[in-house]
Amino acid sequence: MCNSKLLDGKVAIITGCNRGIGRAILELFIEQGAIVYAVARSQGSLSCLEGGQNFIPVYMDVTNNNHVKDLFVKIKKEQNRLDILVNNAGIMKDALIGMISRSQIEETYAVNVFAVIDMMQYASKFFKRQSSGSIINLASIMGTHGNVGQSLYSSSKGAVVALTKSAAKELASSGIRVNAIAPGAIDTDMLRSIGEENINKLLKGIHAGKLGTPIEIAYTALFLASDLSKYVTGQVIGVDGAMIV
C-alpha cells in the first residue's frame, strides 16, 4: 500500500492562518506532508500549533512590503525553494454606496488586492527558476456575483478573480498554475459576526441547506496545490452549496 502524502516535501506559504479557512488549510497541508510557512498578523495566534517540524509561524503584516520581502528572503535561505502560495488573508468591510469611507477603501484593497499582488510577484520568482509552482487565491462568491451592501468587498474580490485569470495566462508557459477558490457562506468567525438573523436569511438562498465549513474549502485548496490538478489553471472554483446571491 502506498503511504505517500499529496504534498510530501512541498514548501508552502499560507496567509491568514490564525483562524477559519486559513487555519483549516494550514492543518490539512501539514497533515499531507507540506512544510508550511504560516503567516498571521497577531503575535502568538498560532502558538497552539508551534513545535511541529513542518510548521514555521511567521507573524507579519501582509500589507507591509518589507515584511513580505523578508519572508521570501527567509524561505530562500532556509529552503531554497517554494512550491505553493495560498493567498487567504482578507478583510470584509460592509457599507452601502454613499457610506463607504476612504479609509475603508484603502484598508480593504491593501489587504485583499495589493498584498495578493505583492505575494504573487515574489513567489513567481521562485517558481520561474523551478519551472513549477501553484498559486491559490481566495476570492469569494461576492467577487463573481456581487451583493447589496458589499460593493467594496465584492469589488476587491472581483479584482482577485481578474488577477487570477490574467496571471494564469501570463505564467502558464513557465509551468506556474494560478487558480482561485470562491467560497460561498462558510461557517467562520467572520460570517458569524453578521448575526444569527442574517445567517438564517443566507441559508434560505443555499440549495444545499447548510453553511459550508472551512475544511471543505481546505480540500479544494489541497486539490489545487497538489499534482492532482497539474493541468488546471486560470480557474475560479466556486465552493458554495449552490448559493444564490
Write up this protein.
The protein has 245 residues and is of the alpha/beta class. The chain has a single domain, classed as Rossmann fold (3-Layer(aba) Sandwich), CATH 3.40.50. 43% of the residues lie in helices and 16% in strands. The chain has a 7-stranded parallel β-sheet with strand order 3-2-1-4-5-6-7, sandwiched between helices. β4 (84-87), α3 (102-130) and β5 form a beta-alpha-beta unit. The protein starts with 10 loop residues before the first strand and ends in a 6-residue tail after the last strand. The model has no long low-confidence stretch (mean pLDDT 94).
Envelope shape: globular
Let me know the number of strands: 7
Q: Which second-level CATH architecture applies?
A: 3-Layer(aba) Sandwich
What's the structural domain tally?
1
Compact overview of the structure:
The protein has 245 residues and is α/β, with parallel strands linked by helices. Helix content is 43%, strand content 16%. The protein is built from 8 helices and 7 strands, in the order βαββαβαβααβαααβ.
List the topology elements.
Layout: E1 11-15, H1 20-31, E2 35-40, E3 55-59, H2 65-78, E4 84-87, H3 102-130, E5 133-138, H4 141-145, H5 151-171, E6 176-183, H6 189-192, H7 196-204, H8 214-225, E7 236-239
Parallel strand pairs: 1-2, 1-4, 2-3, 4-5, 5-6, 6-7
